[in-house]
Amino acid sequence: MARVLCVGIATLDIVNLVETYPEEDSEVRALSQQVRAGGNATNTALVLAQLGVDTHWVGNLSDQPQAQLVRDAFARFGVDASRAEISEGSAMPTSYVTLSRASGSRSIVHYRDMPEYAAEDFAQLDLRPFDWVHFEGRALDQLEPMMQRARAMCGVPVSLEVEKPRDGIEGLFEQADVLFFSRDYVRQRGFDSASALLQQLPRGALATCTWGDKGAWARDVDGKLQHAPVHRPEQVVDTLGAGDVFNAAMLNGLSLGVPIGDALHAAVRLAGEQCGRAGMVLEHE
Question: Is pTM beyond 0.70 here?
Answer without folding.
Answer: yes
